[in-house]
Structure formats: structure tokens, C-alpha cells
Amino acid sequence: MTEHTNTLLGIFPRKIEELKRNGLYRSFVSFSHLAADQGHAVHDTDRIQVWCSNDYLGLSQHPEIIRAQLDSTVKHGTGSGGSRNIAGTSAAHVELERRLAAWHGKERALVFSSGYVANFETLSTVISAIPDIVVFSDAKNHRSLIEGILRTRCAKHIFPHNDLDDLERALAEHDHDRPKLIVFESIYSMDGDVSRVSAICDLADRYNALTFVDETHAVGSRGPTGAGVCEEAGETRPTFVQGVFSKAFGTVGGYVAGPDGALDYVRSHAPGFIFTTSLPHSSLDATIRSLELVQNGDALRRALADNVRYLKQALSAAGIGFLDADSHLVPVLVPGAERIRHVARVLLEEHGVYVTPINYPSVPKGAERFRITVPPFRTPEQIDDFVAALRKSLDS
């Protein structure tokens, strides 16, 4: 390399050192989950417990889903063979999209390689297609939503988190016939709080706006058949509903359900849908089986809710502060980047417990936290042991 390129590349080590000095450098703990021992993994040679997984219902290790993927792999192979428009649309894509659309009461659904891609590509494509549209976005929306909006350089208003008074004032400032889109989440992952979906839809009706709701953390865990907070509220008005398979479903991928014409347009124009290899048949067959289990998984959702209540009671009894939100996500605040890394290290090295420190930019500086999850397979004894280990580590 030339001296010039060495100088340019030298920027990156300096920036990494800056991250380390500011306590923002991210270290990754590698481990392998154990399907036969739910909630456990192997780290180096040690057996550890994982208490921060997004596998909310424990379905990634469900024997029926594993069998569905194995059988499909033997039959169809390990890859899809191409993008959706070049040999990559399988019968499983078609069937899964049909079922997802029906589940959410929408005309069409599109499957993407991830929830991030589903949000980014759908939003950026839809917004770009509508002249003079103005977007109203919750201040705590996920980065995938933010980037999808920013890419279009559209007019936008960021309203304070869940502040519907501010949202209404902003909507009222624009002509009734001007195109508008409200973008929000049903459950916000960092605080675990829930949006007022029906109230937002009321505003959308009043001010002639479209809506896009991200149900990433709600599908599987909320609603009579697990279709999310919208289903739980009996709400069918959101224009677009986004969800993922990589959390409560226990597989991989994401999707958006909505109007046929709009999603047909996204299918035909979104670069991240057109120019990427599609998910393999076997993964989608596993997801179809997972969807069936989720739709009939009320007992799983009740067990998850019971575990969340038990965990919160145990944390309170131990004097450990947490955000008591109305969801299955339990954020335990441990302010300070160095502090939370120390506590996480003690938990892992002395107690065999893994939780991920969540720090800036995922949350503001000084609001560092662990996000604890307690899937249905967790026992009261395991929860008690975890809380005791957390208490000791916080006191270390």
C-alpha cells in the first residue's frame, strides 16, 4: 500500500482507540447455544446460562421446528439459488407470505432477509414513491426505521416518545390532503413500553394519514394468536405492519404486511429486496411450522407473562431497580459504560451467566442497562438463582 492509503487506513485504529477511551468499544462474547439444554450455551469450555436472548418463546430449539428445517434441507438443499426474481422464489415463500397476510388481515405480505431490511426497504421505497409526503416518526424508533426515512430526504417531524399531543399538533399543521405517514413501534425494545396503537390510528383517521407499525418485539408474544399488539387491541387499521422471525419465531428473516398495490410496488423497486439472495426453502419451512406453533401458542404466552411477573417480584425483593413496563422485556438499569461492563464480566466469570451490556448509541449515555428475558422454559428456581447472581455482581 502507498503512504497515502496507509494514512487513510490509519484513521480507523485511532477511532477504535477513541471508542475504548470513551468506554463505548463493543466486545463480543462467542458461545454456542445448546438445543438440548434450553437457555444454556457453551462458552469456551464452560456451560453458561443466557438471560438476554430475543428468542422470547424458546422456539429456536423446538424439536418440531428443528425437524421441519432438517427435513426441508434434505429435500431442497441449503441455499435458495438466487434472488427472488432469479430462481429464488420457492413455494415456501408464496405460502408463508399468504399466511402472514391473512394473519394480519392484509392483502399482501413480503418476506425479507431480516427485520432491518424489511423496515428500511419498505419505508424508503414507499416514501420515495409518494410526492410531497411528510413523515411523523416517534423519537425512540429503531434505527432501521430512522434510516429508511432519512434515505428519502422527505419532510419529517420527530415527535417525543409516545407523545400523542405533540403528534396531533404536528399533524394539524399540514393541509388535510397532504400525504402523511406516521411511523411507530408497538413495543419499544430498550424500555419495554407499549404504544397506544388505537389512539394513533384515531389520529391517522382524523388527519388523513397512513400508518406503519413495527411489531418486531410483539409478534409471537402478544395477541390471541400472537399477531402482536394490534391484534391484542382488536386493531386492524394500520396501513403497514412489520414483523420478524428472528425473535419469538426462533428462525430468521422479516416481513411487512399491507396493501397489495403498495407492496407489489416495493417488490418491484426496493433494491434490498431485488438484489439480494432470498432465504432458503428450509428456513421458510421452519418458519411456517413456527407460525403454526405461535398461532396456537397461548399457553406459551401465558407462561412467558407468568415468568415476567415472577422476575419482577424477585428483582423488587432483591432491591434491584428495573423499568416496570407492560411487556415481556425487563430492562435493569446499570448506569455507566465501565460499570455495566464490570457487572457483566463478573456475572459471566463468577456465576456463568451471560447478559449483554446495552450502551450508547442504543441508549443515551448514563442510561446503560441489561435487557433481561425469561422465556417459558425458565423455572422459578432459575430466576431466583439469576437474581441472586445479579445482586452479588452489582455489589462487587
TrEMBL record:
Note the Gene3D superfamilies from the entry: Aspartate Aminotransferase, domain 1, Type I PLP-dependent aspartate aminotransferase-like (Major domain)
What reactions does this protein catalyze? Answer: 6-carboxyhexanoyl-[ACP] + L-alanine + H(+) = (8S)-8-amino-7-oxononanoate + holo-[ACP] + CO2
User: Which CDD domains does the UniProt entry name for this protein?
Assistant: KBL_like
Among the Pfam families in the record, one is Aminotran_1_2
MF-aspect GO terms: 5-aminolevulinate synthase activity; 8-amino-7-oxononanoate synthase activity; pyridoxal phosphate binding
Cofactor(s), names only, from the UniProt record: pyridoxal 5'-phosphate
Instruction: Tell me if Acyltransferase is a UniProt keyword of this record.
Output: yes
According to UniProt, the name of this protein is 8-amino-7-oxononanoate synthase
